[in-house]
Each structure stands twice: as structure tokens, then as C-alpha cells.
């Protein structure tokens, strides 16, 4: 997820030379020269694979249903070992899902929901269990929040996450402050023993000035990939594979995890990675918690949504109607069309809009109107579902309990 | 615990959810139908084959009407519903016609066979299986669901007349040659509450009229099958591809049929064991991991539930609407549009319901355990 750069986190990979390289790591995402993120370069640099059409078809075949919009439209576009997970599934064995959130703010926007919407689809399509990690300790350290505040934010964020429609009989939500200990902590130590200080500096860009909390944090995000970290769920299933849907800026954590796993006798987790959700003002703009107009929040009313889209959504249309009819819209930079690519389910309708708008026959106003409708429906549905997630529901999701139906 | 918590209305009241469902469905269907009536063209949607719910199997009356059209003589005897030949015999056994026992069988390649025989003919499934070229254990009783899905008749009502249904087009029919020497034969006309008396030649005429060649077989014969003697009934194995979904195949035979299938008491246990064994090996062969059928898991399967609700509702609606609409072909595609619009919202609402109900149960369980632990603590030793 695109986060504002923090004081401590800077370039990942240790090979950043000035501003002319794009920067992608868990704490900062900046494009080169204020342009767009080059995903091909990113895939090459990180060493992951492109998710091609044939894999999408294979998923459809194995799950017996159409692929999720995000797969069809290339939002989730890269992976590591996803084909192996599909092999495993095809053989009749199962796997489990792992995703998470750093609860840094109360307000979630649509971009935050993207990985969770996709994870829900994976849970329903493959009928597999899911663990969701809330890294309240991370935010306590990086954002300098109090322990109480970060715990509170974790619970509040949990409600929005649960409202995405996860199945309580197959989902375990946990926050680090509550859960770390026991077998989970044992795995953390096993992982920590395999990663030198030099290595974390190389991967995450830590310096001598960073406090030791940060430096020892990475194992916390690594070990939920191992089934033995959850003895109440997966005891006896040490070979269970893990699939991690996440945004591509989280790749460094799991590169480290995949490197360590075989050395401690565990399976490497597989990854399926998404591109970044663009800010309302355009790809080059920054989504930031301090600017409410940079994103659509799940708490926005229909009026807010209409206002934000109409006034702030960056348009690729021409400056005058005559020019627009003549040249058509620039679909590369147009935000409403990009957002529709994420949230408009109907492929035919989206293609129609792209065609007409790109040719200049459809005006920006129309596209924005369509987007407002789609977003309002989405936010309204989320709001309704969220209202039904009480503290008791959160407690139940977070209870350390067996999940007998998790593979059913 | 002094915290006050606001409990939103929805989390405990089912009425809230159904209200939303009804409103959504009714509104969607109404909106579409009123547009149709006003003459608005619907977006061009592929016309789908009529869904099974609309394409119900033939009723007894429809069957009898067809026999009359063909000028086939028959007599009907009404009686209370019967599930076995013995029970049927109580009502019509004294009338001089030949009672029949009827089996629905299936082979390992999911092909189905109706074997219709005189009540006292001995049927050895192993022999039959070899004569059909299916090997020694190739035939077993079909699952209950198959009766419904393929023949569209209830339990205990297997009958050659069920082949009138299109769903049975790939089913092979084996008739006992003993029928030919009988003046009249007794079969169920798609219901257990009636016995139809008909001559073998009339049955032939009926079968020919629905595009079938009647095949009479000496069911008790036991010819050697080997290299020099090819299976003599091999031509009766269906050649068309079956169209059933896999679900039917996995259901293990739930009841041991002693009914109209007329098996003697010893045979059921052997067959049941055989059926269980081949079902078990089929299960192993299947790639997918299938948990034993847990009724609670079935009941909380949201997608299935939503699909059933929408299917039932749209069928009911369509049955009412098609009376008014000029073009009954539009109706199924309308229902698909509606289903697509409503499914997603409905699934989300159901998931909220499921999570809320689980939470309530979880709390109750926790409280119950707490109470019982506290009680145990305070018990005098």
C-alpha cells in the first residue's frame, strides 16, 4: 500500500542512487522523476513472475467460476510460485492464505480494501482458511503511536476488514500485541537467527540510528507464512503451503522469508502481488492520510463521493469539447477509467466506455457519473456490512479457537 | 464489564435480512417486467435453455394423455402409495396381470440403465454387468438423486415409462423377455399411487413413439463371456455422453432398495456392500478432497443457499409472469439478469448473517463453559 515516507524508512535494496530510480519498499513508493511506476522493471528487479493469461484461465478452470475482476484486469499482476500452489490444489491438497494490515489510521480508503477484496475471493473460490495479521506493534514503532492507540486502531481496522465479507468459520484475525508468543515466537527466533544485520540493512535500508525494535520487526511479518505458527489451527500439518496476496511493495519481507524457509525446514510461501492503487489526483499524486481528497474513504457519503470524483479525479479528457470529440481522451492518465477498471464488474460495459471515451464520443462527465454510481454502491454495501460487525464479532474472529470447517 | 454497547438492529433478527432480499428481488423483477410491458427492448441476452425447474418431468396425466393420443389401450388402478412390489401386490396382485420390478442401475462410466423385469425373474447384477461388457463389478444401483434427476420419478417408482422424459435420453432400457408372453404387465405411470396395466406390444408402441427401440432380453441367462464369446448385451450400453454433474455420482446409495426393485432379502446386503465399495473407490479416485457430508457445512454454504433462494424465487415469479408476457422466451433471460444483480448483495448479507450467528453461538458457548467451570470450582470436594 502506498504510504507516506517515514523518517526512518528509505530506499530498499541499497542501490538507490539519487532521485532517478524508482523506489519501492514497505515504507516508501516513489516513481522515477515523478512519473509512473514501471512495473516491468519492478518485476525484473525483484525477480518475481508476471501473472499471465494462462494462469488466470487455469484458476477459472480449477475453481469453476469466473476469475475475480482484479485478476481479469491485471491488478494482481505478479507472483512467486502461484503455479505451484495451483498444482498442489489440483492434486487435492490444500493451502492457507495469509494477508495483513498495518493499522496506522482509522480511516480506510478503497485502495486499502483492494487486497482484502481479492483475498475474500480467493477464500471463497478455493475454500481455504485465512489468517489476517494486524501489525499494531509495527505501527506503534514506525508511527510512534502509544501501545493503547495502536491496539485500538487494530480493532477498528479489523471491523472494516471483516466487513469485506470474510467467513468466520475459516478466518483467524490476530494482532501482534495479543498473539505473539508460544509457537509463533519460537518461529520468530528461528527466522531471526538466519538473517544477519547486514542483510536487513540491505533489504530494508535500516541504519545505525534506527532503534532495535524496527530492526527486529521483520520476523514478525515473516512467520505467519508457516503453519506451525498457529498450533491451534494447523497442528500436524507442517507441510501446508501458504499463499500471500499483497501489494508488491511488501515483496521484500517475503523475499527474506522465502530465503530463510528452507534453512529452517519450512515450505516457502507463495505470493500473488498487486499494483498500486492510484490517488484521485492521478498516478503521480500521493495518497496521503492528511489529504482527504486524495482518496475515497469507506466512511464517505454519496455526496462526498460525488464531490470528490467530480472535483478532484484527474481527467484524461481534453480541455474543450471540440478537442475532446476530435482527439478523444487519454486513457493512460484518466483516473475515473482506471478506477472503473478496479470496480466495474461488467467487462463489456468497461470496454464500451473505454472505446467511446477514447474516441471522444463519450464525455468525462458521463464517465465520472458512472464511476460515482459504482463507488457509491460499493461504499454503501461496505457501510452496511460494517455496521453489523460489532465488538463481539471482532472478538469471535480473534479468538484462539479451532476452525474445524476451514477446508470444507 | 461496565461498557455499554450499541447493538445494531440487524445482527440478531432474521426478518431484517429477508426483508431486504424480498424488496430487492421484487423491485428488480418488477422494474424489468414493467419495462417489458411498456415495450422497452431488453438488452440482447443469449436465450438460455429452459432451466430444469421450469422443464419439470412429465406428470402421470401428461403420460396417460400421450398414451391416449397413440390410441394405446391401458387400464389404471389407483391405490395408496407403494414403495415395494410386495406392497403393490396387495392392491393389484390378484387382478391377473404381471407385476414388474424395475431397477435404475449405473456403471463406472456414469451411464444409466433401466432394467425392467417380471417380479419373479432372478436378476444377477454381476452376470448382467459381464454381459454388457462392463466387467464383473461394473453395475451398481444408482443413487436416489439419480431417480429424481434422470428419470424424474420418486423413490420406488422406477418404470420404463419414465423414458418419456428428455432427461432420460441417454438411459438404456433392458426389458425382460418374459413380458412378451404376458397378457398385461403392470408398471407405475410416473407415480407410486397408480398401477398401469398395459400389454407388451402396447409398451413397444409407446417406446417407439418416443424414439426408443424396445430391447427384450432373457435376464436370467448366464452365457459365458470371454475371448471367444463377446458380451451379448454390449449393444445396449449407451453411447451418448452423460450430462450429469459430478455431485450425483458422489452420493453413496443411502437406502438399501427392497422396493419396486424387487430384490430378495439376501441380495441387498451384497449389493449394498458392493455399492459402498465402488463408491469408496470412486471417492478415492476423485482428485478433490471431499469431507464427509456435514449437514452443518452444507447449511452454511452461502453460495449454494443464495443460488437456491434466487432459483426458487425467480421460478415462482416467472411462472406468474409468463402468463402475461407475449414472448415467454424472454422470461429466463430476465431471471438471469435479476439473479446477477442481486446475487452479490445477497451473498454479502448472508455472510454478515453467518458471522453474526456464529458470534452469538460463540458467546453462548463461552458463557456456558464459564458457568460450568465456576460451578465445578464451587462444588464441595
TrEMBL record, chain A:
Enzyme class: ligase
Keywords: Aminoacyl-tRNA synthetase, ATP-binding, Cytoplasm, Ligase, Nucleotide-binding, Protein biosynthesis
Xref: Gene3D superfamilies: HUPs, Tyrosyl-Transfer RNA Synthetase
GO biological process: post-embryonic development; reproductive structure development; tryptophanyl-tRNA aminoacylation
Region ranges (Disordered): 1-22
Similarity annotation: Belongs to the class-I aminoacyl-tRNA synthetase family.
Name of protein: Tryptophan--tRNA ligase, cytoplasmic
Species of provenance: Ensete ventricosum (Abyssinian banana)
TrEMBL record, chain B:
Source organism per UniProt: Ensete ventricosum (Abyssinian banana)
Family: Belongs to the PRORSD1 family.
GO molecular function ontology, one term from the record: aminoacyl-tRNA deacylase activity
Protein name, UniProt field: YbaK/aminoacyl-tRNA synthetase-associated domain-containing protein
Domain YbaK/aminoacyl-tRNA synthetase-associated: from-to ranges: 79-205
InterPro entries: ProX/PRXD1, YbaK/aa-tRNA-synt-asso_dom_sf, YbaK/aa-tRNA-synth-assoc-dom
Amino acid at each position: 500500500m502506498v504510504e507516506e515516507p517515514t523518517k526512518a524508512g528509505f530506499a530498499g535494496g541499497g542501490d538507490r542512487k539519487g532521485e532517478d530510480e524508482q523506489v519501492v519498499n514497505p515504507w516508501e513508493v516513489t516513481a522515477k522523476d515523478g512519473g509512473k511506476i514501471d512495473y516491468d522493471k519492478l518485476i525484473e528487479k525483484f525477480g518475481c513472475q508476471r501473472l499471465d493469461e494462462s494462469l488466470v484461465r487455469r484458476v477459472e478452470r480449477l475453481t469453476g467460476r469466473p476469475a475475480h475482476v482484479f485478476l481479469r484486469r491485471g491488478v494482481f499482476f505478479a507472483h512467486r510460485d502461484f503455479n505451484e500452489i495451483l498444482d498442489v490444489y489440483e492434486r487435492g491438497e490444500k493451502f492457507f492464505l495469509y494477508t495483513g494490515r498495518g493499522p496506522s489510521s482509522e480511516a480506510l480508503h478503497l485502495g486499502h480494501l483492494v487486497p482484502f477484496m481479492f483475498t475474500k475471493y480467493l477464500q471463497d473460490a478455493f475454500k481455504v482458511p485465512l489468517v489476517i495479521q494486524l501489525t499494531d506493534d509495527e505501527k506503534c514503532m514506525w508511527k510512534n503511536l502509544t501501545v493503547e492507540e495502536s491496539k485500538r486502531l487494530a480493532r477498528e481496522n479489523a471491523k472494516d476488514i471483516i466487513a469485506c465479507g470474510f467467513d468466520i468459520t475459516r478466518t483467524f484475525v490476530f494482532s501482534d500485541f495479543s498473539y505473539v508468543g508460544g509457537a509463533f515466537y519460537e518461529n520468530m527466533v528461528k527466522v531471526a537467527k538466519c538473517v544477519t544485520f547486514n542483510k536487513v540493512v540491505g533489504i530494508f535500508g535500516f541504519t545505525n540510528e534506527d532503534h532495535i525494535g524496527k530492526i527486529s520487526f521483520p520476523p514478525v511479518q515473516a512467520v505467519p507464512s508457516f503453519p506451525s505458527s498457529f498450533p491451534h489451527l494447523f497442528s500436524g500439518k507442517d507441510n501446508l503451503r501458504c499463499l500471500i496476496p499483497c501489494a508488491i511493495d511488501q515483496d521484500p519481507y517475503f523475499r527474506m522469508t522465502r530465503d530463510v524457509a528452507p534453512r529452517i525446514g519450512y515450505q516457502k510461501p507463495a505470493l500473488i502481488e498487486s499494483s498500486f492503487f492510484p490517488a484521485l489526483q492521478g498516478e503521480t499524486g500521493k495518497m496521503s492520510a492528511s489529504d482527504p481528497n486524495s482518496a475515497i474513504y469507506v466512511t464517505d457519503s454519496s455526496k462526498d463521493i460525488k464531490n470528490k470524483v467530480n472535483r478532484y479525479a484527474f481527467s484524461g479528457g481534453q480541455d474543450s469539447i471540440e478537442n475532446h470529440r476530435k482527439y478523444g481522451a487519454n486513457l493512460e492518465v484518466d483516473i475515473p477509467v482506471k478506477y472503473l477498471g478496479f470496480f466495474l464488474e461488467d467487462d463489456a460495459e468497461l470496454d464500451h466506455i473505454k472505446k467511446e471515451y477514447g474516441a471522444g464520443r463519450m464525455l468525462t462527465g458521463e464517465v465520472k457519473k458512472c464511476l460515482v454510481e459504482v463507488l457509491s454502491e460499493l461504499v454503501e454495501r461496505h457501510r452496511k456490512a460494517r455496521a453489523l460487525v460489532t465488538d463481539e464479532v471482532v472478538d469471535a474472529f480473534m479468538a484462539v479457537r479451532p476452525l474445524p470447517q476451514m477446508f470444507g | 464489564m461496565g461498557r455499554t454497547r450499541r447493538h445494531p438492529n440487524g445482527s440478531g433478527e432474521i426478518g431484517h435480512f429477508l426483508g431486504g432480499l424480498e424488496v430487492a428481488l421484487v423491485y428488480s423483477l418488477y422494474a424489468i417486467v414493467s419495462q417489458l410491458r411498456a415495450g422497452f427492448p431488453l438488452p440482447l441476452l443469449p436465450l438460455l435453455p429452459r432451466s430444469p425447474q421450469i422443464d419439470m418431468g412429465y406428470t402421470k396425466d401428461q403420460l396417460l394423455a400421450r398414451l391416449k393420443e397413440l390410441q394405446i389401450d391401458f387400464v389404471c388402478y389407483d391405490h395408496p402409495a407403494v414403495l415395494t412390489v410386495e406392497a403393490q401386490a396387495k392392491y393389484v396382485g390378484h387382478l391377473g396381470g404381471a407385476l414388474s420390478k424395475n431397477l435404475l442401475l449405473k456403471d463406472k462410466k456414469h451411464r444409466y440403465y433401466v432394467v425392467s423385469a417380471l417380479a419373479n425373474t432372478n436378476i444377477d447384477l454381476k452376470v448382467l454387468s459381464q454381459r454388457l461388457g462392463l466387467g464383473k463389478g461394473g453395475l451398481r444401483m444408482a443413487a436416489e438423486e439419480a431417480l429424481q434427476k434422470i428419470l424424474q420419478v420418486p423413490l420406488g417408482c422406477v418404470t420404463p415409462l419414465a423414458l418419456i422424459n428428455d432427461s432420460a435420453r441417454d438411459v438404456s432400457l433392458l426389458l425382460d423377455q418374459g413380458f412378451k408372453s404376458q397378457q398385461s404387465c403392470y408398471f407405475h405411470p410416473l407415480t407410486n399411487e397408480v398401477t398401469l396395466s398395459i400389454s407388451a406390444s402396447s409398451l413397444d408402441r409407446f417406446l417407439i413413439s418416443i424414439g426408443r427401440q424396445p430391447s427384450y432380453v432373457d435376464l436370467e441367462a448366464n452365457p459365458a463371456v470371454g475371448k471367444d464369446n463377446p458380451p451379448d448385451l454390449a449393444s445396449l450400453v449407451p453411447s451418448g455422453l452423460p450430462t450429469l454433474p459430478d455431485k450425483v455420482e458422489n452420493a453413496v446409495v443411502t437406502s438399501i432398495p427392497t422396493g419396486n426393485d424387487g430384490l430378495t432379502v439376501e441380495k441387498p446386503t451384497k449389493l449394498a456392500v458392493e455399492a459402498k465399495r465402488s463408491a469408496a473407490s470412486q471417492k478415492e479416485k476423485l482428485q478433490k478432497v471431499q469431507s464427509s457430508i456435514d449437514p452443518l457445512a452444507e447449511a452454511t454454504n452461502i453460495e449454494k443457499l443464495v443460488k437456491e433462494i434466487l432459483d426458487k424465487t425467480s421460478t415462482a415469479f416467472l411462472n406468474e409472469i409468463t402468463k402475461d408476457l407475449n414472448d415467454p422466451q424472454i422470461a429466463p433471460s430476465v431471471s438471469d439478469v435479476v439473479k446477477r444483480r442481486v446475487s452479490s448483495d445477497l451473498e454479502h448479507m448472508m455472510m454478515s448473517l453467518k458471522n453474526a450467528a456464529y458470534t452469538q453461538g460463540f458467546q453462548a458457548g463461552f458463557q456456558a463453559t464459564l458457568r460450568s467451570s465456576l460451578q465445578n470450582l464451587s462444588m464441595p470436594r
